[in-house]
């Protein structure tokens, strides 16, 4: 949930840096809010999307678009097929042992992940990116992504509104100190 204080902060950031592009402003906001992925990369694409949403809703005034960048993801080649053992496992989860979930973006395992997602996931990459964003946002806000997703699934099944993201903890919502350091 974006608070009124967050909007005031974003407006001030834009007003204090009128020469910056949308790209630069989103990166500056990510630094100020320490909005990073688990691998340390800035969440600037998500941030730009949030800022654009606020702009379209009339809550902030973004600078004009300076250049249109073609999305490289739209033009990328399909990943190479990686053959893996697909034999069925007939054992309990307990017998399988601990499962590890980790980020593979920009690692040697990314190509394997992309290939398996392309071959086996019926929704493709968009749903996985959205899920990763929700998990990371909950982590940053010190909230349970599992609880949020369970409530969202329940709400969808019952025809109820989607639950809001957890609030930003007070310790993280005071951006003014971080703002001047960026």
Please characterize this protein's 3D structure:
- This protein has one domain.
- With 182 residues, the protein is mainly α.
- 53% of the residues lie in helices and 0% in strands.
What's the topology here?
Blueprint lengths: L3 H13 L5 H12 L10 H13 L15 H4 L17 H4 L13 H11 L4 H16 L4 H14 L11 H4 L2 H6 L1
Helix pairs in contact: 2-3
Cα separation of the termini? 23 Å
Overall geometry comes to globular
The SSE string, one letter per element, is HHHHHHHHHH
Which sheet architecture does the biggest sheet show? Answer: none
Please state the average pLDDT score.
82
Estimated radius of gyration: 20 Å
- SS elements, strand count: 0
Beta-strand portion reads under 5%
Structure class = mainly alpha
Quick overview of this protein structure:
The chain is mainly α and 182 residues long.
Based on the model shown, name its key terms.
53% helix; 0% strand; 182 residues
């Amino acid at each position: 949930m974006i608070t009124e204080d967050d909007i005031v902060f974003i407006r001030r950031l834009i007003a204090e840096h009128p020469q910056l592009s949308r790209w630069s402003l989103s990166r500056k906001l990510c630094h100020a809010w320490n909005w990073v992925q688990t691998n340390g990369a800035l969440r600037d694409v998500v941030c730009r999307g949030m800022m654009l949403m606020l702009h379209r809703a009339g809550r902030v005034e973004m600078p004009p678009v300076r250049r249109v960048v073609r999305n490289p993801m739209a033009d990328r080649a399909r990943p190479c097929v990686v053959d893996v053992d697909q034999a069925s496992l007939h054992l309990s989860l307990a017998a399988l042992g601990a499962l590890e979930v980790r980020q593979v973006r920009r690692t040697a395992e990314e190509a394997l992940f992309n290939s398996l997602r392309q071959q086996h996931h019926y929704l493709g990459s968009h749903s996985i990116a959205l899920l990763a964003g929700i998990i990371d946002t909950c982590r940053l806000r010190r909230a349970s992504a599992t609880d949020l997703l369970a409530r969202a699934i329940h709400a969808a099944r019952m025809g109820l509104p989607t639950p809001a993201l957890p609030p930003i903890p007070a310790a993280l919502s005071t951006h003014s100190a971080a703002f001047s350091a960026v």
